[in-house]
Task: structure prediction
Amino acid sequence: MIKLIALDMDGTLLDSRSQISQFNMDTIKKAQLKGLRVAICTGRFPENIKIMLDDIGLQCDIIALNGATVDTNGKRIHQAFLPIDIGKEVFEMLEKHDAKYVMFQDHRIITRKEDTIYHAEKLYGERLKAEYGVSFERGYEAAKKAVSGGVSKFFVFDSPENTAVLNEMYGYVKTVENVDVTRSGPHNFEVMPKNTGKGVGIQKLAEFYNIPMSETMAVGDHENDITMIRAAGLGVAMGNAIDLIKKEADVITDTNDQDGVAKAILHYAMGEEAL
Result:
């Protein structure tokens, strides 16, 4: 019996227009009314998820920054940071390659390039500052200061035409000891503390609620979902997932544009047939 469901956001709960369908929302609420815990499990930062959920009237547990933070009922039950020396090593490597990147600290987002605005700041910047206590900074000095402690994740990205350069950096950073490196798309990679991942996030949440991992379900589509697909009692790949996820998953649901999340919850967690 499934008691805890972990849902990836981009490419999974969100459709190709970055929206959550009414069917998905209604099904999540239906599952919650039946007593199931539903967590959003994403690479995004916690307040980014909170503001999105608040705007559509959903209340879910939040596993953010690929498992580096876990929040339930407004309480933080887990948080991981890169060791200062490791963070500095990653920082210096990225600077050497003139990389575009964003650093995530507690309630603080640092964008390295002065002319770049992180997408969450574009959409919610003023509200995140006023209502959720998030500060946004940018530039070399801000990044250099931040790397002195309290960094949970580096998000490195570039445009499609620079994929080869990004892949080269990805290879270099993967040689750094005591970090986990993953990807949530073809044009980015993410650097987190060692032994951090969505799978760890689910385990922390399951432990908090005394739910056996055999009674958890995880739904995802990309490389950064692999640890939770493996860790959960039932790993569900989206129909639009990359081949790696489909191979690792126990079952495959429909795509993110065809309410694959709702169909998976109804069929595998609630024993109902999706319409």
In short: The mean pLDDT is 95. The longest strand covers residues 100-105. Residues 119-132 form the longest helix (14 residues). The two ends are 22 Å apart (CA to CA).
